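Query structure, 504 tokens:
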């Protein structure tokens, strides 16, 4: 990465901290942690990582449950000038092997229940292994507690990496997305101002922290504004309703809002203290938008972002929030709609959405050709989303040119699953699609053609996939068919499959 002015994300957060005795987060078990705890424990973690021999720029991989100690690990890593590499807790050993090898991880921090199974893998890759459990137990914090609580934050260049986050690709091989200190600082600074975050805000945080939404957006807005959080281990309707009266902002995926609406106890009174509900990571149905407003009097603010870019657009805090749109370009972000020949289109014309700004990542880890392919000569990133911009500047996402399914706010690339299914000797070919679902947004479904004379059930195919990928990537339904429809060029017609199987 090129050299720029010194900048470290933690230093920027630290400059915005309120008095250190203020509560930063309160867990669902009623345990409170202060900003002093964040300063103290992140320093210990940073010192411990340095004692392990890690240096500036080394990758720290973390597959851990959501906890306050997991937050100290994240803050300590970036404070030490190292690169934080969050991993979905559902990933299998096979998936982890690829991530650790590709990232060249210096250390993996995992739950102690997985340590024995992963030790051989880490030994083969030369990766150190430390443990961190949801209750704070494990070798990481045991080691960190022996270290000094004083640490001089490492001054990194603005373009140096703060995080390496993997997103599955259409080829089935996940890509490492390189996010710099500047990317994260610029984006969250804009969001704090645009969404009106301040020290009196308390965010209801029920999101996972291995994902951009929960880690960089939600936590970033709190740390950058000196606010606080109600910290839930996961989304639970009863726990959310119980914590809403103690919160001022909630961020969630559409599934959170559909589940709240399905709960009879969720009412106007539940939301009396909330000033803002924000939705992202998946499309929010207009019906959900309208039902939520009718039920609570609150208009959900929908926004649009990607792992590669952070947030790009948002409906306004003050102004019209339009159902079915993801709002206006954020300050400092330029968006445009282009056709296949990269010519810019006019209002209400559908084409590929391209974005440019300080929020946009620097490229894919060790994939310069893929990086060059996804950027235009004038520096715009091709998002792969099909969209239009209306006369008022509101952006609407109308489809995805890159064949991705979003289920419960988590991204799934069908090609990754198709490759696994097609490896089965009984399978001739497969097509994986997403079908509409009121709760998850989309459900993953596989349509499979068996080889001549082969006998294989849908449940057997699911079982074969389940052992190799995270559970959320396993097709919820498998249809065995005689053939898969193709167009005149021989390309599988997934639109035909979606139309045929929707409702079934």
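Result returned for the query:
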């Amino acid at each position: 990465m090129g050299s720029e002015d010194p900048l470290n994300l933690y230093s920027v957060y630290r400059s915005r901290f309120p008095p250190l005795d203020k509560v930063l987060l309160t867990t669902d078990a009623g345990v409170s942690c202060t900003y002093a705890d964040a300063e103290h424990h992140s320093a210990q973690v940073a010192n411990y990582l340095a004692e392990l021999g890690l240096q500036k720029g080394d990758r720290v991989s973390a597959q851990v449950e959501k906890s306050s100690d997991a937050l100290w690990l994240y803050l300590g890593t970036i404070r030490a000038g190292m690169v934080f590499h969050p991993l979905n807790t559902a990933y299998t050993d096979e998936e982890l092997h690829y991530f650790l090898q590709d990232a060249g991880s210096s250390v993996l921090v995992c739950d102690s229940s997985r340590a024995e199974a992963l030790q051989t893998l880490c030994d083969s890759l030369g990766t150190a292994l430390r443990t961190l459990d949801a209750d704070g137990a494990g070798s990481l914090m045991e080691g960190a507690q022996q270290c000094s609580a004083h640490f001089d934050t490492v001054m990194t260049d603005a373009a140096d990496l703060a995080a390496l986050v993997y997103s599955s690709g259409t080829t089935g091989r996940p890509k490492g997305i390189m996010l710099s200190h500047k990317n994260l600082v610029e984006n969250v600074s804009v969001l704090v101002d645009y969404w009106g975050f301040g020290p009196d805000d308390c965010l209801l945080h029920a999101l996972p922290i291995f994902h951009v939404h929960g880690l960089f957006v939600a936590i970033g807005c709190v740390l950058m504004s000196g606010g606080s959080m109600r910290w839930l281990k996961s989304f639970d309707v009863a726990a959310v309703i119980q914590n809403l009266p103690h919160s001022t902002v909630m961020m969630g995926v559409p599934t959170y809002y559909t589940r709240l609406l399905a709960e009879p106890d969720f009412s106007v009174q539940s939301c009396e203290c909330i000033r803002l509900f924000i939705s992202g990571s998946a499309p929010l149905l207009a019906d959900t938008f309208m039902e939520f407003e009718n039920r609570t009097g609150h208009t959900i603010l929908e926004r649009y972002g990607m792992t590669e870019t952070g947030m790009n657009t948002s409906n306004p805090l003050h102004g019209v929030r339009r159902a079915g749109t993801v709002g206006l370009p954020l300050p400092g972000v330029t968006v445009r709609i282009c056709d296949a020949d990269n010519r810019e289109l006019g209002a209400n014309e559908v084409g590929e959405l391209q974005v440019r700004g300080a929020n946009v990542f620097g490229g894919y880890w060790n994939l310069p050709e893929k990086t060059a392919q996804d950027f235009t000569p004038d520096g715009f990133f091709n998002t792969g989303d099909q969209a239009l911009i209306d006369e008022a500047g509101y952006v609407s996402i109308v489809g995805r040119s890159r064949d991705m399914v979003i289920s419960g706010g988590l991204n799934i690339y069908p090609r990754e699953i198709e490759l696994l299914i097609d490896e089965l000797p009984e399978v001739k070919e497969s097509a994986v699609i997403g079908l509409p679902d009121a709760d998850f947004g989309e459900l993953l479904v596989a349509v499979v053609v068996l080889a001549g004379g082969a006998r294989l059930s849908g449940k057997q195919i699911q079982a074969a996939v389940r052992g190799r990928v995270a559970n959320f990537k396993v097709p919820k339904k498998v249809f065995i068919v005689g053939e898969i429809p193709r167009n005149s060029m021989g390309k599988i017609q997934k639109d035909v499959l979606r139309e045929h199987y929707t409702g079934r």
